[in-house]
Amino acid sequence: MLSQYNGEAKPLAGGTDLFIYMKTRQLKPKYIVNVKKIPEFRGLRSESDGLHIGAATTIRALERSDLIAKQYPLLTDVISSFGSVQIRNMATIGGNICNASPGADFAAPLLALGTQLSIVAPSGERKMPLEEFFTGPNLSNLQTDELLVELILPVPKTGTGSAFIKLRRVSMDLSKVNVAAVLTVKGGVCEEVSIAMGAVAPTPVRAKNAEAMLKGKPLTNQTIESAASAASVESKPRTSLRSTAEYKREVVRALVKRCLNLALERGGG
Amino acid sequence: MVKCPVKLKVNGDEFELYVEPQRTLLEVLREDLGLTGTKYSCGAGECGACTVLLDGESVVSCMTLAVEADGKSVETIEGMAKGGELHPIQEAFLEHGAIQCGFCTPGMVMQAKALLDENLNPTEEEIKQYMRGNLCRCGTYPRMVKAIIAAAEKMKKSRAR
Q1: Pick the CATH number of B88-160 from 1.10.260.40, 1.20.1440.230, 1.10.10.10, 1.10.150.120
Q2: Residue from the list B21, B54, B133 with its beta carbon closest to the beta carbon of A84
Q3: Which residue of A84, A88, A172 is the best one to mutate when testing the B interface, meaning the one whose CB has the most B CBs within 10 A?
Q4: What is the pLDDT of residue A269?
Q5: B133 touches A: beta carbon within 8 Å
Q6: Which CATH number does A160-267 carry?
Q7: Which residue in A23, A36, A87 is closest to B133 by CB distance?
Q8: Which residues are CB-contacts of A144 (< 8 A; sequence separation ≥ 6)?
Q9: What's the complex ipTM?
Q10: Do B133 and A36 touch (CB under 8 A)?
Q11: What does the DSSP 8-state code read for residue A246?
């Protein structure tokens, strides 16, 4: 259907972003295609390669899922700070990703989890790591005739803890900065770690230097502190309505530290 | 513009309408059905004044297309009072003075109904979290929290009866 309209149609999921873009005339699609009614696009199911989440699953449905609460505490952090009940009833996880906002709440956490995307086009289906999906502010590798079908979240290894923290002004605001961390610890040593940051670069990004500094090292206040500083250095925030670049860099340092400590605590390391 | 057939069950009454696909549920409720209790305010899903229940779940009707609501049941403030008697939430809002100018009230009452339909024993913190998408520029928040606690008590009693 999307290909039939030759780039003039936009998919609609929750509408909580799309309608704002349309009302402010930043987007003027001729047609909209409602994907929320396609049953294959909704719901969660556990498979051997991880948790499959349909792109049109509402945030509210995630909130009610035991699977999410048990295995992905950082997503519970995201959900509890996500908009209002009304918005959570409407907004979808796929929509939050596909609009490719640099500060989208689910982007950094899903990036840190190593999420895979399943995308469908008229020519067939393809898989893509989320890490390769974002190309710029509100830009992604999703073609106009393609749809995100589902997100696949790998099962966290034992000893893994995770956390997400965002800084914003009031509860309905977008993030000034957000940070997610997933940390696997064995005997006090960091076995695996991924740190992702939102709203500090043109796309949500991993803090690879910070990760490299922690991997294989014991987790002490000192190593966590240096990793947080490294993340702050590799972030590339710009001064915007929401904050200055200098301030955001300081916030990155503080949030990375807090996130790592919280993930460590939750992982039982 | 092409019009699409839309079936809505609003406060128990069935309607079959033909609406232009770009029109919001809020516009259709207010302009086509004359149900002007639901208010338009920010138009961007941030203030909650246009909150209605769609198949029992609260949504902001300013960002819901009428065609998305096709086949669903809609509850608005007009459906709260039954047979000339106010709903316990409405009574409690009045008793606790949780209304000043009243513009946010229909959205507040509907959001409170969504909360109490789900959980009749909310804590103060749970109420604040659940109501955080409903803004009141008169600042009746503390009274609103008290009213919702009182409404929960009323509803529990009437259920026990």
Answers
A1: 1.10.150.120
A2: B133
A3: A84
A4: 55
A5: yes
A6: 3.30.390.50
A7: A87
A8: A2, A7, A9
A9: 0.94
A10: no
A11: H
